[in-house]
Description:
The protein has twelve helices and no strands. The C terminus is likely disordered. The chain is globular and about 55 Å long. With about 210 residues, the chain is mostly helical. Helices cover about 60% and strands about 0% of the residues.
Amino acid sequence: MDQANFFLFPFTHILYASVAMAIGAFFISYLSLRKQKVRREETMLLSLFSVGSGIWLYEIAYHYSYGPEPHSIFIQELERLNPFEIFFNPSSCYNVLPVPATACSSVFPFVWSLIIVLLPFIAYKKMRLNKYFFIAFIGGLGIFAVWILMGYPQYFAPGWCSKWTACTSLVSYPQDARTLVGYLANSLSKLLILAPASLFWPRSRLKNAQRI
């Protein structure tokens, strides 16, 4: 059976893990904010913000994990605010294909992504650092680190990113194994999507009672 059947929704390029983490981020935010007595309308809006924040936090990590950006390209990314180009022309955006950086017809919208990531922080008074945030944030970035050290293999062609030649040369495994690693790493790293939502996790009643 095709490996894609275990990781992707049929007839799409959407990972099961992507949808699961997005739904998880929504409900973590929603339930956490409701426990903090936030109004339902505000809770819905902030939960949607948390989902968008988590997704674009992941996109930032995913994009820059491909390797160091040339200075000229990074400047363009700071100036570009159209987020839809990466969906219409992802190969040129992520530099997956072995082409010069100047040949890229679209660049990653860094500023726009950062704005979306920061949206939930309009309710910063409802946030707090907690162990669940560190699990999602450090765990997600840790998976990215291991993924990069393995050569950052992807499940789509061509599969390797030329910017990490030093890391790519450290590993050598068959095409099928590379594809499987790409699916697994792409799926597991989606844990990072939960990081913004987990900041709304409320203090336990026991800890509040002890402080009183």
